[in-house]
Amino acid sequence: MNKAIETTDPADATYGPDHPAPVIEPPRARTGRSPRTSRTNYELYGWVFMRMSGILLVVLVITHLLIQLVLDGGVSKVSFAFVAGRWASPFWQAWDLIMLWLAMLHGGNGLRTIINDYAERDTTRFWLKMLLYTATVFTVLLGTLVIFTFDPNIS
Amino acid sequence: MPAGTLYRGREGMWSWVAHRVTGVTVFFFLFVHVLDTALVRVSPEAYDDTIAVYKTPIVAVMEYGLVAAVLFHALNGLRVIAVDFWARGARYQRQMLWTVVGLWALTMAGAAYPVLGHAFRELFGS
Fold first, then answer.
1. CB distance from B36 to chain A under 8 Å?
2. Would B53 be classed as within a structural domain?
3. What is the ipTM of this complex?
4. What is the pTM of this model?
5. All domains in chain A, ordered by first residue
């Protein structure tokens, strides 16, 4: 038996045809556990959406915070009458609708990424994402319904 | 640094951590915020009673924290876009982070009185 095979210290080993170096698997090698090759550009579109919506949200949200929390008495002036005054204008209705959709989809996709990163078990990951998608769809639809059906004369 | 970790420390990693933490914070607030606004479809009283909670001093401090999270996420998000699309973005990512932190500190100082002022007056008299 070749004595060199029993050598455990790599510094002592002299590798050759009869004594090959140990194989180190490349870090990104496909294995049985690798997912099948993606055939869509879905993740690319998501990446682009995060950046495009992010730029719009900086403008939409910071203006929203200025109006609601800084100008004209800050949060103290917010009331049903204040909401009714703002949603009397289609401009602010559209503003809030676009902000709602972009923020929920941007946040939903962000949380999807975080779940994919940290939830290692397949079933845990699946159900956390189902919970996320349910909550996101519910919130977007509820908010949209509220903006479109707002009635300033409700009693 | 322990072997076999992807985490590299320093400005790059910690800004990434802060971006995640602030993002999740803002997203959870957004759920609550859509729900409280939906009360305008119930009755003016239901809405005004709930908004009264937002005007208490303790929630004013939380609002200031929310503003802190939104501002950091917004400014650092623009930095992420610069790193991705600007040819020299990666080279200047550290300088851009400290620019973000500086702008964040300035805007937070500016937001302190408008966001916290009413709570201060309520706690310590007019």
1. no
2. yes
3. 0.90
4. 0.83
5. 42-149 (1.20.1300.10)
